[in-house]
Structures are given as structure tokens and as C-alpha cells.
Specification:
82% of the residues lie in helices and 0% in strands. The chain is elongated. The longest helix has 32 residues, at 5-36. The chain has one domain (23-82). Helix 1 runs antiparallel to helix 2 and helix 2 (41-60) runs antiparallel to helix 3. The chain is mainly α.
Length: 84
């Protein structure tokens, strides 16, 4: 099967992008899990802006949709206020 140079380049690009997207998605999930494991109110308050920022960046990079991000942030906020 003959493959043109552009096809081979697109394959290389898609592999790079897939690796980057998987790493970003893994980072998002890890941040949320770490936040959910916090035990004290002080820790949660300190981590909340960072996790929220990661969620917003994921929407910007089109890893997740806006509604999913809103749901995540709502759940995190609910958890933060429940700990008080």
C-alpha cells in the first residue's frame, strides 16, 4: 500500500496529539481524585481554584464539553461546602 508523505505526516501528528490529550485527561482525572480525597476544609479550599483551573483548561483544549465541566465544578463546590 502506497502512502503519501502527507498521510505519513498526519499519522505522526495524530499520534503526538493523542499522547498529549491522554496525558491532559489523565491529569484532570488525577486532580479531581486528589481533591476528593482531601480530608480537611483548609486543604479543599486551597486546592479548589487549581482544580477549577484545570477543568477550565480542559474545556479550552476541547478535551471535555462545557456542560461536563460545569457538572464537575458543581460537584466540587458542593463537596467544598459540605465539609464546612
Amino acid at each position: 500500500m502506497i502512502k503519501s508523505k502527507s498521510v505519513l505526516k498526519n499519522i505522526r501528528k495524530s499520534v503526538r496529539r493523542r499522547k498529549a490529550n491522554r496525558a491532559k485527561k489523565r491529569g484532570l482525572k488525577d486532580a479531581i481524585k486528589k481533591y476528593n480525597k482531601t480530608t480537611t476544609q483548609k486543604q479543599a479550599e486551597k486546592m479548589y481554584p487549581d482544580v477549577q483551573s484545570i477543568i477550565d483548561k480542559s474545556v479550552q483544549d476541547e478535551l471535555i464539553k462545557k456542560n461536563k465541566a460545569a457538572r464537575y465544578k458543581s460537584q466540587l463546590s458542593k463537596r467544598l461546602h459540605k465539609q464546612k
